[in-house]
Design a protein that fits this description.
- The protein is an alpha+beta fold.
- The protein is about 35% helix and about 20% strand.
- The chain has 9 helices and 10 strands.
């Protein structure tokens, strides 16, 4: 499904070469005003650019009429592209949910007389190796794209994600909320194995918590992640207290779950 998503986005970007590197002194998008704008890509639905604030993007439908005309915005074409994108995103989500669950290390050791892990016993699907109530693998980071957080004495939420993954992007506002609400006790970290440029291009939704990359995916490989987003919540002693796909029906990660974990394992 990832390939299918790229087909949609590729079709949407067929207009991009016409205005690449075009410069605008000011770009108004609703109440937002960007200065020193250099257009990098224009698709059927969006304009991507660099500006005095860094990198940005905006929907063509939110531009002033003159700019919409300049960039040849066609509402009918834009709606068709957005509908295809929504369908691709929905199918991606369905494919993730329908993937076979990863065989846990506890299952591998069943013949040796070891009991199954709490995750396996609960029937919860997991697209990674289970580390629940076990020591978490070391977080290996190639580069921090933000300031490196101080995790000493705090809970740590690690989100394995990618910019091309619709559910990953859907999780960002929730993670921002945990970062704001529990920031005195919880460190939220997003880690991607994509190149730095790809991660920095994502400006919507905006990520408020610390972000790192590791193009060698060393921690992701140690956890044996096969489906993303995959989240670990680790207590101050380094033990995993929650793991899995945050939108899994019946096992959703939400503010109440995070609060309960912090209250339960703070001592």
């Amino acid at each position: 499904m990832r390939f299918g998503l790229f087909i949609v986005l590729g079709w949407a970007a067929t207009m991009s070469l016409v205005w690449a590197d075009e410069k605008l002194p000011v770009l108004k998008v609703g109440s937002e005003v960007y200065s020193n704008v250099t257009v990098t890509t224009v698709s059927a639905t969006d304009i991507y650019f660099t500006c005095d604030r860094g990198m940005g993007n905006a929907k063509l439908k939110n531009l002033e009429p003159a700019l919409q005309k300049h960039f040849q915005y066609d509402p009918k074409t834009a709606r068709a592209v957005e509908q295809k994108q929504m369908a691709a995103n929905a199918q991606f989500h369905i494919n993730v949910i329908s993937q076979p669950a990863h065989k846990s290390s506890a299952d591998d050791n069943a013949d040796a007389g070891q009991t199954s892990s709490p995750v396996a016993a609960s029937g919860k699907k997991i697209w990674a190796r289970s580390f629940l109530n076990q020591k978490a693998p070391e977080l290996v980071v190639e580069k921090w794209l933000t300031s490196e957080p101080d995790c000493r004495g705090k809970f740590v939420l690690i989100d394995f994600w990618a910019t091309w993954c619709p559910p990953c992007r859907a999780a960002i506002p929730e993670l921002n909320g945990y970062y704001r609400k529990f920031g005195d006790k919880l460190v939220v970290i997003g880690i991607s194995d994509e190149p730095e440029e790809a991660v920095r291009r994502l400006v919507n939704p905006r990520i408020e918590y610390p972000v790192a990359i590791d193009t060698r995916a060393r921690t992701k490989s140690a956890v044996e992640v096969t489906g993303i987003p995959h989240v670990l919540i680790i207590d101050p002693q380094g033990i995993v207290r929650w793991e899995g796909f945050p939108f899994l029906g019946g096992y959703e990660l939400n503010e109440n779950v995070v609060a309960d974990i912090i209250a339960r394992y703070s001592h």
